[in-house]
Amino acid sequence: MAGPRRKKYTSGEGAQYVTRATAMRALQLSLKDFRRLCILKGIYPREPRNRKKAQKGATGIKTLYNKKDIRFLLHEPIIWKFREQKTVGRKIGRAKALKEYSEAKHLMNKPVLIKLDHIVKERYPTFIDALRDMDDCLTLCHLFSTFPSIRHIPRDQSTLCRRLMLEFMQAVIYSKALRKVFISIKGYYFQVEIKGQLITWIMPHQFSFEPQTKEDVDFRIMSTFVQFYIVLLGFVNFRLYHVMNLHYPPRVRRVEETEGTDLVDKMALQSERIAALNYPLVSTTTSIAEEEETALDKFELDGNEASKMEKAYIEADKIQKLKTLFKGMKVFLNREVPREPLVFILRCFGAEISWDKKLFVGATFEESDETITHQVVDRPQIERQYISRYYVQPQWVFDSVNARELLPVERYFIGAVLPPHLSPFVDESKTEAYHPPEEQQLFSNNENENEEEEEITPAPPKITTKEVDVSTKSISSIQKSINDSEESSSEEEDEEGDLGPEALKEKMKMKMIVTPGRMEEKDPFEEKKKEREEYKLREKMVHKKHKALYKSMMKGRALRAKDVKVLTKKRQLIDQKKMLKS
Amino acid sequence: MTAAVESKKKKKVCKRNKKNWRKYIDTKDVDDFLDLQRQEERIGGPASKKKNEELFVIDDLPTKEAAQDRNLPLTKKQRALLPMACYKNLESLTKVPDPITKRNRVRTKEERQATMLKKKRPEGWVSQRVVQARQDRLRTLKKKKAVPKGVVFRNDVWDEKTVLPDLEWLGKDALEHNLSKAKLASIRAPKGIVKKKSVLPALELPHPGTSYNPSVSDHQDLLRLVADKEIELQKKEAHLDRVTSDFFQKVTPAEKQAQWVAEMSQGLVKPELPDLTDDIEIKEEPLSDDEDTKENLRLSINPPTDRLKAKTRKQRRTQKRLREEALQRKYAKVEKKKISDIYALKKLNSSLNNRSEKQKLVAEKRKKLAAAHAGRTKRLAAKPFEEADIDFSRPCELRSSLNLVKKQGSLLSDRYQSLQKRNILAPATKQTKLRKARVKKFVKASHKIEEAGAQIQKRKGMKPRRK
Asked: Bias category Basic residues: which stretches (chain B) (predicted)?
């Protein structure tokens, strides 16, 4: 009737998972090797929906893996390497027991080469996939590059990490891909943009190695991660260099051919120069390719997309200017300044740099050079100062990059109390928050100073939304987009209101030189009403799928606006009270 | 002698033939002489003919040490240089020189080749194996030199295509099988490998308050976050204390000891009243107890079986028949229900619908739950994940100079925690001590020694002895 009785846990949740012990038994590996294999292959434990069923009725919490994952691991060729290593270990033990030390030594020194190329391809099918997952890789590699040789970490791992990190930084310098920088108490945050992917990593502060206990961090596990990330970073570097027509491994231009002739190890000289980050890389093509910038195409778009496009234009323009931020500057670094992060940033944006000759290889000019424009100093005072250059504190460099323009140097002079170093990684929704008048003044001052400076240095002209509005018709339609409509319309009105009717007339005259005519008079109230109606209509066009999200977004915006209103009102009241008192 | 005696007795013997002559002639002296000569030849000539140097040695080593030196056993290396013991059988035992002074010996193969090649190679003949080995060595050295010393990346993994042989004539299954066996086709990876295990970013963007020179408001924000977390933790701790340790009344050690003594001496007779009547009672009681225990031992949980009460074969047959009949009835009932179910189609349909609706609801619920738990750290191991403390600098530690920045937190442990948070690593405590099973040790009865016997018997059943 009902057929043979089915056994429990042969289907469904119960058949999907295996415990770690079972997996290890199936793969015939020790726990150490199993952990290594899982990390290298990117297979991690799972949480079942119903733990009791997944553990086949066993209570307690066990580490579970997907059965299919484990079956996939069975085919991995590097398992055979692990098994070989195991037998070699046994042979070493045997040789030691027989007191054949030379044999044991020979076996111990035998290199173990585990190839991970195929795993990189498997885990990251495309180059973009790899770039998306670089954060961990770069942070860990940079961290390990500062490590001395410790137990459980292969001796050459840290040197290899350092080499690859330097190569990556060189590639960033060459492609000018750096976007944001931040000095935190943990280390230096860098954000670069490669192929449209934002990659962030932390460079540790100088001399920051601290020994750690076993209970705190499992060094062996972290080292295994690094083992994989090294291979990943190597291939990413290779690809980046080839896309940019550079030699890989990188070669730097020889300054003087005779310099290295009496050295035994020329490779060491080369790697030292690469570490300096101050030599240009040698290209594979002889002709110097002009930096071809893909200009953004302009399309006639409307509504939301148009506003997005406009934003993209502004962003692209800003980035274009950022890339040549420090161009033409000659910077000298004092010896107390952290060299590596500063050289990396300054070189990314086109500055020429040098430092004390005795500090590090790669100094190009001396401190006494009169053409130096800026000197980065981090001490309260300096004995001998040149009048031809600015003495600034290192924060100026970081803040200028984040502001995407050269900030006035006065606030960063030697001994000056620095303005706060603000994070560039702030959530944009926070900008809608209430800003007290003091803060507003602080930033408006900044802008004013910039305008003053414009006369002296050709700083990038600020692009306001209005200019764009006038320039192209297509973008004027953008203004009507949902996101910006309120702000822009109010701005326009404000400006027009400020000008007054006569001045406006004058302005219009100035604009229309060809045929003196009369502008069509428009009722501003009517216009506003019409706009409002259109806006409502457009709101109705929002897809049903996104309606809830849109509503919540608008609600949040209104709430924030209300908060701001309340706070400004409060402030006003307080100010009034103060006024009355005084 | 006997022959001589006989010959004396026998005066007349025939010596006509050579044979007879030989039979009766006495050759003893000749034989003795020849024996002596042969023996001397074997030993190496008579001593009288040898030179002094050959026979005598000037003993110029004066002391005991020299004698010891001479008698020292050979070292391993020296012994290895000696000719093999098995060749001793092949050596001649006599010192008699070879009668043929010019003997033609067949030379070995190697000797023959050596003379042939001497002109070509100054070192003479070398075996083919050695020549091959030399060539191999050269080749490997060349190969080694070509391999770069460090790790080198010289291919683009994302731009490689495995070139497969043209095997269109093979069927699909056969092709797949052959390719996988030849390791040309890679095993298809499960989809989950590429998927990220958590929606959390690998590197959390820093709080603006963690800047080395933060603005006051940002720093205050951060401090507030830290303080809130700390307060929450303290609250939790206080709650746990209230619910656990404060829950129970506290007892001083002295009180505890007194309680323990009282508990342990329950049912023991107090040594204050040594009465005679009591004594008798005490003696009687344990006896009765013993009897009880014996009876208890005899009893089993199951009732005793009785052979007379066993079922007969007939009884068993009937039982079986009844069982089968009951089963038949059950089947019949089910069959009947199948027919009647045709009329209950509507009901069945609605129940099916109900079920599918329920499943839909469950699926929706699950989806909602998944959305709510999007950034949650999953429970991957027995040890739960604990979020690390937020790194921050105290107001007194803030310096505006980059040189004087006080570093906070460890990047390595930060990474380790992040991996755990993103469901990549299962949180675990590192096992620093190796756990060994405790083994009970006993001395086998057959291995007990008489002297210690008394001692061991005393210890029997008590704490095992460990070495």
From this structure: 310-320
